[in-house]
Write a structure and sequence with these properties.
The protein is α+β, with helices and mostly antiparallel strands. 27% of the residues lie in helices and 35% in strands. Strands 1, 2, 3, 4, 5, 6, 7, 8, 9, 10 and 11 form an 11-stranded antiparallel β-sheet that branches. It comes from Symbiobacterium terraclitae.
Length: 196
């Protein structure tokens, strides 16, 4: 299926950012389903590395991601974290995205931290409390994934203009931010392992 193709099969994927390399070994796979659900996965492959998937490392990565995002986007965007781990990304006092407290997932040779998407202006009306932002640590790669998310700009019956806007704004920003953060995370992990 080529870029821009529309599928006549309900629920069939429409490729937004077909597999692409974002630099420094980060691979992007972004798909928008006909129903407007997004799956966006950025993977940083670390050839020859032997990372140690651990709960503490992904907890730190989750906290560090939102702190890093807050520093990166100030003064325009503020990222607020509650003591329980819930997060809200706010622009001029308006919540763009909020996440419930994170959950740790273990298994299949990886450890992940999952932030369930709660609500916000960027979430399609009626689709709150669906989807997640997830950071995964594998022995040979780092992954940032957004799955099950329903952005306000796309949905069933949304115009080509709205999809175009989503692809070139929110999806494009997410891909760039994810690639930068995955490289930042790798830098912290390798610095911690390096002998002094």
């Amino acid at each position: 299926m080529g870029r821009g193709d529309e599928s006549a099969v309900p629920g069939a994927p429409r490729v937004v950012g077909k597999t692409a390399v974002l630099g420094a070994n980060v691979v992007d796979e972004t798909v928008v389903l006909c129903a407007g659900e997004v799956r966006s996965v950025q993977t940083l492959h670390v050839p020859g590395a032997c990372l140690s998937p651990g709960v503490q490392e992904v907890r730190e990565a989750g906290r560090a991601y939102f702190a890093w995002l807050d520093r990166l986007a100030r003064p325009f965007l503020r990222v607020l974290c509650s003591p329980c781990g819930a997060v809200a990304a706010r622009l001029c006092g308006v919540t763009l995205l909020s996440f419930r407290a994170p959950e740790i997932l273990e298994g299949s040779g990886r450890v992940a931290i999952r932030f369930p998407i709660a609500a916000g202006l960027l979430v399609r009306r009626g689709m709150q409390d669906r989807g997640e932002l997830r950071l995964e640590l594998h022995a040979d790669r780092l992954v940032m994934a957004v799955e099950g998310y329903h952005p306000a700009l796309v949905g069933p019956g949304s115009s080509g203009l709205r999809r175009w806007l989503y692809e070139r704004t929110q999806a494009a920003v997410h891909r760039r931010v994810a690639a930068r953060y995955l490289n930042e995370w790798l830098g912290r992990l390798t610095a911690r392992r390096s002998p002094e």
